[in-house]
Amino acid sequence: MAVNDGNPQREDRDTPPDGLERLWIDRARTGDRTAFEHLYRHRVGAVYGLCLRLTGRPDQADDATQEAFIAAWRALPGFEGRSALGTWLHRIAVNSVLQHGRYRSRRVAVSASAIENAPDIPSEHEPPLDLEAAIASLPDGARHVLVLVGLYGYTHGEAAQWLGIAEGTSKAHLHWARQRLLMFIERSRCDDLP
User: Which residues contact 71 (CB under 8 A, 6 or more apart)?
Assistant: First the structure.
């Protein structure tokens, strides 16, 4: 069975049928560790992928993923199924990344003026970056919104609520992040020309 790498388009293909997952959820809610292990095995790739894209660092993504599943285990008895399990786990993962970032003193508030005055993309003398590296290089706020809204398809309202920012700030972060990524891509293309 394939492990989900966090790509939202692959999630449906790699998760068990609803009935089986529902059974695992019901059993795990009552403390069945084996059932929770099944849920973990089917969802860890997607959660890790989200955490990696939000943090930009594998070590932090590992920690945030572990913390997210610990939090999910503790909160599972209260899971009512009003949202899909994947959405619920993503919300926990976002909270884990944000808490982990606060703990490590890495979280930086990005104001509108900071976005406007951000330094340019690295010079053409540096090697071109791949898209994941370009995403990882974005400031936390812009990267978080880009991942949640641009890659995972959540609404600006959902992302804003999860990240504790205004919806307009979410839109501004996404616009800025897309502009930066476009600049990275254009630079990479120019660097590839003979």
Answer: 92, 95, 96
Q: Is residue 117 located within the same domain as residue 185?
A: yes
Domain coverage including residue 177: 112-192
Split into its structural domains, the chain has a count of 2
Distance CA 151, CA 94 (A): 14
CA-based radius of gyration for the chain: 18
Q: Are residues 119 and 87 in the same domain?
A: no
Query: The pTM is what?
Result: 0.68
Residues 75 and 120 in one domain: no
**pLDDT band with cut points at 50, 70 and 90 for residue 179:** very high
Looking at residue 144, its pLDDT comes to 94
Task: Please give the Cα distance from 132 to 179 (Å, whole number).
Answer: 15
